Amino acid sequence: MTKTTLLGVSIATIFAISLIFAQNVTADEDKPDYLKIDETKVTYHTDDDGTFLKAEIKTEGKIKEKGAYGYGFLTDGVNNVLALTTHICASDSPFQGDASDKKCPNPVGLLDEEFTRDNDGKKFHAHILDLMPYTDACKTATGLTEGLEVDVASSVATNGGVPGVSPDYPVKESGKKIRVGNVPTDVLGDGTIVPTIVSFEIVPVASGSTLENLCLINVGN
């Protein structure tokens, strides 16, 4: 038997996360419409294999597969964050598709060059990532003194060598909506199943073809 529950976003959690990102948030009117979250819907179903999350985000503008940005589902705020991202020419997953060499003549990535060139597309895909406070590299790259970046080493180490990629969590975007499903709640943060949902942009820091830092900016909803 499958049980489905509809839950809202915790106001207390939103407040706590807002304090973390206080210096890192862009005024809503300055954001592109696809980063302005209009509505969210989160449901859970429980079966013999556990409890699983399914979520939908509706934005004010059409979601575009360009640039480096995404949507995050924050539970405890920094660990085991579910993220839906797109970042053409910066590969970290065989599930993000492929772009032509003309479009990405010098792609960067976290793995070897062959992998990078074969998986540098723009397709949205899911990750489970750990976050940490800005390092000096992110402070320099963003011009901000505080913020959060992806803890690349932790995310790689805890996800089988591929940086947090989660191919079993299907992602689909269409128009102003993006959806993700089949996410086991026991991989999310401290186990709570009430996420805060935010949008963000990514500022990458690379050394040659090696992607070393992923800095988050303009975090908010």
Strand and helix map with partners:
Layout: E1 3-7, H1 11-20, E2 37-47, E3 50-59, E4 68-74, E5 81-87, E6 90-91, E7 108-109, H2 113-118, E8 125-129, E9 131-133, H3 136-142, E10 148-150, H4 152-157, E11 171-174, E12 177-184, E13 196-207, E14 210-220
Parallel strand pairs: 6-7
Antiparallel strand pairs: 1-2, 2-3, 3-12, 4-5, 4-13, 5-8, 9-10, 11-12, 13-14
Describe this structure in words.
- The chain has one domain (3-220).
- It is mostly beta strands.
- A hairpin with a 2-residue loop joins strand 13 and strand 14.
- It starts with a strand and ends with a strand.
- The protein has helices at residues 11-20, 113-118, 136-142, 152-157; strands at 3-7, 37-47, 50-59, 68-74, 81-87, 90-91, 108-109, 125-129, 131-133, 148-150, 171-174, 177-184, 196-207, 210-220.
- It is globular.
Low-confidence regions: 1-27, 157-163
Number of strands: 14
> How much beta, percentage-wise?
35-45%
Order of helices and strands: EHEEEEEEHEEHEHEEEE
Query: What integer is the average pLDDT?
Result: 79
Total domain count:
1
The biggest beta sheet, please?
5 strands, antiparallel
By secondary-structure content and strand pairing, the structural class works out as mainly beta
Give the proportion of residues in helices.
10-25%
Whole-number radius of gyration? 17 Å
| N/C terminus separation | 35 Å
Tally of DSSP helical segments:
4
Strand line-up in the sheet with most strands: 1-2-3-12-11
Molecular shape: globular
